[in-house]
Amino acid sequence: MSGRPENEQSAGSANRSAITVTAPEGTPEVRKGDDLAALLLTALGAEELSDGDVVVVTSKVVSKAEGNVREGTREDALPGETVRVVARRGPTQIVRSRLGLTMAAAGIDASNVEAGHIVLLPLDPDASARTLRATLRDRTGVNVGVVITDTAGRAWRDGQTDIAIGAAGLEVLESFAGQVDAYGNDLVVTAPAVVDEIASAAEISQGKLGARPFAVLRGRADLVREPGDDGPGASALIRPEGSDFFGFGAREAVVRALKGAAADQAPFGAPASVEELAAAVTEVTGIAPIPHGDGLRVDDADPAVVAALAFAHGWRCERDDTNLGATSLLQPMTA
Amino acid sequence: MSGRPENEQSAGSANRSAITVTAPEGTPEVRKGDDLAALLLTALGAEELSDGDVVVVTSKVVSKAEGNVREGTREDALPGETVRVVARRGPTQIVRSRLGLTMAAAGIDASNVEAGHIVLLPLDPDASARTLRATLRDRTGVNVGVVITDTAGRAWRDGQTDIAIGAAGLEVLESFAGQVDAYGNDLVVTAPAVVDEIASAAEISQGKLGARPFAVLRGRADLVREPGDDGPGASALIRPEGSDFFGFGAREAVVRALKGAAADQAPFGAPASVEELAAAVTEVTGIAPIPHGDGLRVDDADPAVVAALAFAHGWRCERDDTNLGATSLLQPMTA
Fold first, then answer.
1. Do both A182 and A283 map to the same domain?
2. Which listed residue, A24, B65, B316, B323, has the most CB atoms within 10 A of its CB?
3. Where is the composition biased (Polar residues) (chains A, B) (predicted)?
């Protein structure tokens, strides 16, 4: 694994840990072909980068420099950026984008750009982060981490926070697996998404009015990897298709299960246990399934209902009309 | 609305905006009845609080000081903290808690506490934040904002970030409604959840090993409200029941729609438009509904399927057996 430079906080006061986030003003409008490293270094002026700094830059200026600006509206561009719709209500569409990000309108932005134009997300934000990191190393000799941010809504909570959509040279998850707290309890599942937290810290410093696309976070050099080791990138934080409990809006999940079951599509998501499926069938229909080989048999329940439940649980459902009355046979996907 | 003290950044360099987050070490184990304000001021030592600082404190030490620690396991305590299950797979339960927060195991924590004990979230984190703010004002004369944090998983992305579960004296959403960017575009929907971003910035400084429960963020005095004006609190960020697209896991949404439709329960969520419902019925059944009064009539489709779709879209469904064949009548909730 990556070696890590010594934590800068050891250079500070012994009894506190401090970070600073500086967002320089004075960056001109970014245009296609602009040199982001040069713009950052100019904006920083006398304040030089140091080993272990984390450079944060908004995806908007990365996209502008890379020429990922189009004439048109968000609605025009949305289909090309979308892999599938996650949830839709009225004019709001939350989609899974070509980058795997779940975002309203695929992160297409119509603010801080000429009227009548839109900014798409960078083609490969992790690659953009690696390039900027390497360029800064070439020009200054310092070893920094780079985060590329965008602003995203969340499930369950109002408002947006900035998240990392690209990263280079950084731990993205700070894993405590194998470590214990002061009481000896295992910290098994704790894994702070530090690049997302860095993105949010930068937003607090940058603000949203467009004049400060860069920020430099100092004080967590322990998160920065050695030169040449770019780490997994921010894309490693994206849950793969099918592994998320919330891969579909509640309404869309119902439509998808009923439709998918009727059309005999491949189920979505990892299969539930036979006990979980049996409990769901009993809960909905009042009829307890009967074990049947590796699977279950359900008698006298609406076959469409049973098929939708099977689909939602990642199981296959076959209707058996050899007996009198409706019988459904449920099989695990591996069968 | 609240007046705001002058933004501190004007006191710094004119061409950059900087925040600092300091997390002092040296806080002893917190016990029931401990005085958090005194512990913070002792930990800060010579570094005094200033007007416009934001004091961030983990919910864990707030709970410990308030005596919200129990003997037992997370499993024992979960039912008492849960309003309803949002999603469940295997041993993982994501629930909506009595505070309205959607979190794994209702935010009950078994780390950084004596083995065999658990820490529940504070009873009313916004009230705890208000109390700490008032106490700090009484003792020091300074006007700060207070954020109480917890660590939460997210939909769509791996890892956790710290969020604000309590707040006092702060803007919680920084609204740009009515403002325009440098190009004159409206910033209508942009509303950064600044208290959540502050919580994340603090986590970057505090870390997870328990020795630094406090942090002080300096540089965003513009977000701090006047003394006596505590603002809406962090609970204002929680989406109300029924208004969230992701109020149920995909699997749970299917179970709930099929069961709720069968049991003639009240639908969940705000009603969809008649066009949205008609499109869903057509998509799933292949049968286009026919306008019928304020609602729709669906002939020759599986009534259980139509009822589940109606339920998922916030509509009522009645089966009409006066005609030959299955007919479902769909009515908006207001009818």
1. no
2. A24
3. 8-20
Please tell me whether residues B42 and B190 are part of one structural domain.
yes
How many domains does chain A fold into? 2
Q: What is the ipTM of this complex?
A: 0.90
Distance of CA A323 to the CA centre of its chain: 48
Asked whether residue A201 falls in the same domain as residue A149, the answer is yes
- Name every chain B residue with its beta carbon within 8 A of the beta carbon of A178: none
Q: How wide is the angle at C-alpha A146 spanned by C-alphas A144 and A151, nearest 5°?
A: 150
The count of other CB atoms within 10 Å of the CB of residue B65 is 22
The DSSP element (H or E) to which B139 belongs, if any, is: helix B125-140
Q: Examine residue B154 and state whether it is found in any structural domain, yes or no.
A: yes
Q: Across the interface, do A21 and B24 touch by the CB < 8 Å criterion?
A: no
Asked if B202 and B299 sit in the same domain, the reply is no
What's the confidence (pLDDT) of residue A1? 35
Q: Is residue A112 domain-resident?
A: no
Query: Hey, which residues 29-68 in chain A have their CB within 8 Å of chain B?
Result: 45, 47
pLDDT, position A90: 82
* Residue A108 exposed, middle or buried by CB count within 10 Å (0-12, 13-18, 19+): buried
B83 touching A (Cβ < 8 Å) = no
Q: Which domain holds residue B256?
A: 250-332
Distances (CA, A) of B192 to B14, B88, B129, B166, B200: 24, 30, 21, 17, 13
Q: Is residue B11 part of a domain?
A: yes
Q: How far off is chain A from B197, nearest CA to CA, in Å? A: 5
Q: Is the pLDDT of residue B16 over 70?
A: no
Rounded CA-CA distance A41/A136 in Å is 9
Contact (Cβ atoms closer than 8 angstroms) between residue A86 and residue A253: no
d(CA B55, CA A328): 59
Range with the poorest average pLDDT among A165-174, A198-207, A324-333, B305-314: A324-333
Nearest neighbour of A112 by CB, restricted to B163, B181, B304: B181
User: Quick one: pLDDT at residue B189?
Assistant: 67
Helices then strands, counting H and E runs in chain B, come out as 8, 14
Please give the average per-residue pLDDT across A58-67, as a whole number.
97
Q: Do A20 and B20 touch (CB under 8 A)?
A: yes
User: Per-residue pLDDT averaged across A10-16, rounded?
Assistant: 44
Q: What is the mean pLDDT of residues A246-268?
A: 86
Do residues A21 and A138 share a domain?
Answer: yes
Which among A193, A217, A126 has a CA at the least distance from the CA of A166? A126
| Mutation target among A10, A15, A19, A237 for the B interface, most CBs of B within 10 A | A19
Measured between its terminal Cα atoms, the distance across chain B in Å is 40
- Kindly state whether residues A228 and A321 are assigned to the same domain: no
User: Are the CB atoms for A136 and A110 separated by under 8 Å?
Assistant: no
Confirm or reject contact between A305 and chain B (CB < 8 A). Answer: yes
**Closest residue on chain A to B286 (Cα):** A259
Mean pLDDT for chain B overall: 89
**Per-residue confidence (pLDDT) for residue A71, from 0 to 100:** 95
Query: What is the per-residue DSSP string for B304-321?
Result: HHHHHHHHHTT-EEEEE-
Write out chain A residues lying below 8 Å of B250, CB-based: 245-248, 250, 253, 256, 268-269, 312
Q: How far apart are the first and last CA of chain A?
A: 40
Give me the torsion for CA of A179, A180, A186, A188, rounded to 10°. -30
A17 in any annotated domain: yes
pLDDT, one tens digit per residue, over B207-261 is 877 689 999 999 999 999 999 999 999 999 999 988 899 999 999 999 999 998 8
- pLDDT one-digit tens code per residue, B172-188: 998 777 777 777 777 66
